[in-house]
Design brief:
Length: 76
């Protein structure tokens, strides 16, 4: 059972990586690169700041989920 959970976590980690890579490419950067501001801050700056915070949250959730699993003794 833990190996199935570990495999599922690896799949989710891969999906999160691909999604993060897509979000810092041309179409999304072009959408948020506007002269408008929110709260006095450029929208692109807020996009990067929120994306950075979200990536840290994903890493934290992933590591917490891995800590709950028993060690498999085989490494990566």
């Amino acid at each position: 059972m833990p190996e199935q959970v570990r495999g599922r976590l690896r799949q989710l980690w891969f999906v999160a990586f691909v999604l993060g890579a897509l979000l810092i490419n041309y179409p999304f950067l072009h959408i948020f690169n506007r002269p408008t501001t929110l709260g006095g801050l450029p929208v692109l700056f807020l996009y990067f700041f929120v994306g950075w915070a979200a990536s840290i949250a994903v890493i934290a959730f992933y590591t917490r989920a891995l800590k709950r699993l028993p060690p498999n003794g085989q490494g990566w």
